Amino acid sequence: MKIFKILLTLLILLCNLSVAQAKTKDNSNYKLEYLNLDWWQKYNDPILNDYLTTAFENNQDLKIATLNVKQSEQIVKEAFARQLPQLGFQGDVFRDFASSDIRFGNVLINDYHQSNFFLPLTMSYEIDIWGENYLRTKSYKKQVEMIKQNERASYIALTSAVASEYFNLVKFDKLIKNQEELVKIQSEIVRLEEIKYKNGLCPVLELMNEKQLLTQLQEELNVYVDKRIIIGRELGVLTGLREKDLSVMPRNDYSILSIIELPESISAEVIKYRPDYLKAEDYIEKIGIDAKVARRDFLPKFVLYGQAGFSAYNLTNIFGNHTFKSFAGVMPSFDLFTGGAKMAHLRYTKLELEKAQQIYEKTILTSIQEVNNSLGVAITRNLNYKESVKRYDLEKEKYALADKKYQIGAKSKLEEMKDYEKLLVAEKDEVNGKINYLISTVNIYKAVGGKDFTTINDSL
Prior knowledge:
By secondary structure, this protein is of the alpha+beta class.
C-alpha cells in the first residue's frame, strides 16, 4: 500500500502542477504597445487613430498572428509536460475459457477456466540526466519568441499600411475636389472661347486647344476617382470594414495633418528594435540549443517505471486482502546502431546553425540598407515638398496680382480664370508633396521597427 500512496500523491501533485501551468497572465496589453497610438498622434489626426483602432479589432492577419503565438505557447506546454512523470490507468480484464495443462516443475495444473482482473496505475519517468528534455523545451520557448516577433512585425506592417492608405485617401479627397474645380473652370473657359470664336475674336485652333485641355482634365478626374475607390477598398480590407461602412467614415482635410521633422541621421544601432533582427538572433539561439540536443541524443537514457494496483480472479474480491500488487524498476536504453540517423541529424543541425548565422548577417545588412534608404527618400521628399510650398505661395501672389488687375479692368475674366487654373495646379503639387512626404515618414517608422525615429537616437 505504501507504493500505492506514493503514486496517488504523485498524481495529485501532477494535477496541481497542470493547473498552475494552465494559469497564464493576461498579456493583452503588449498588443496595444505594438499598435503604438502615441506615435500616430504626432500626425494630429484623431480619425487616423480611429482607423488604426478599428484595424486592431477587426484585421484578420492580426488575429492569425495572435493565434500563431497562442499555438506556439501550447507547444511549449506540451514539451514541458514531457519532462514530468507520466501517470495513467491501464486496466486488464480477461477470462481464460479453456487452458492447457501447465507444469511448474513436478507440479501439474490441469486445464482450467477463470477470470482475471488487474486494475493498476502505471507510472513512467525519463530521468533527464543530460538535460536533453529541458533543452528541447527551451528550444520551443525560443520558437515562441520568434513567432512573437512575427506578430509584432504584422502589427507594424498593418499600422503602416493603414496610415499610408489613409493619407492617400485624404490626398485624393483633396485632389478630386481640386480637379472638379479645374474642370468647372475649364468648362467655363471653353464656353467663353466658343463665344469669342463665333464673334470672330479667336482662331479655331485656340478653341480646339481649350477643348482638348478640358478632356485631359476630365480624364485626370476620372483617374483620381477610380484610385480613391481602389484605396478605399484596400483600406476596408485592412480595417475589416465593408465598403458601405468605409464610405460613411469621416476623413479630415489634408491641411490638418502635421509635418514630422526628420533627424539629421539615424544610428545603425536602431536595427536592434526591428522584428526581423530580433527574430534572427532568436533563431541562432534556438538552433544552438537544438545542436546541443542532437549531441546529447547519443547518450544513454534511463526510464523509471512502475505499477501499483489490485489483481484478483473475482471482481467481488478486487479490493480484498492480498489483492494489492506493485512493482518498480529502471530501464536503461542505449542505441547501438541507428544506421547513421543520429549523426546525420547532428550534421544537419550544425549546417542549420551555420545557415542561421548567414541569415543574421544578411538581416543586419538589409536592415541598415532599409533604414538609410527610407531616410534618404524622406529627406528628398521633404525638400521637394518645401519647394512645392514655395511655388504654391508664389502662384498665390501672382494670382492675387492678376485678380487686382481684373478688378480694375486691366485683365479679362478669361485671363483671370486661366491664372486661377495655374494656382489650382500648383496646389495639386503641394498636396502631392505633403502626402508623399508623410508616407515616407511612415516608411521610416516601419524601417526602424515601429519606434519614434525622431527621438530614437537619444535612447541608443
